[in-house]
Structure prediction request, 152 residues.
Amino acid sequence: MPTTSSLKLLLELAQQQTDASAKHLGKLNFQQQEAEKKLNLLLQYRHSYQSHFQNFTTTGIDHIEWLNFIAFMDKLDAAITEQRQAVLHAQNKRSAGNEEFLSCQRKLKSFDTLSQRQQSAENQKQIKQEQKILDEFALNSFYRNASSVKES
Prediction:
């Protein structure tokens, strides 16, 4: 069984690793949320621009304005497609970060369990040792009392 100091060191390292992993997962969650916000803004902007343009077309629109609208919508759709990929990438990174965090937590729990078992074994050993000392003391006391009774 590992020594107390080496197990304690492993437990501390596992705790540090879990803390770092949790912090990293927090950053990944934030990045995913930001990517999703940006995508939603692009989608809202597209909807708003399309609605505005439809209102504008009721009064009439020339060919150049129509071409500009089509070109702009194509660029906006390309940006939306790119942002959807960014959201998907951020989700994948967050999932990987979550798996890493869970792995670190399992490792920490394992070391903690080992540490508790070792502490329990040491406590049992100490209890047995104390009981042995008490038994020897009681036996010696009994023999002294028995000897003094025989002499009287």
User: Anything to note?
Assistant: Helices lie at 4-57, 63-151.
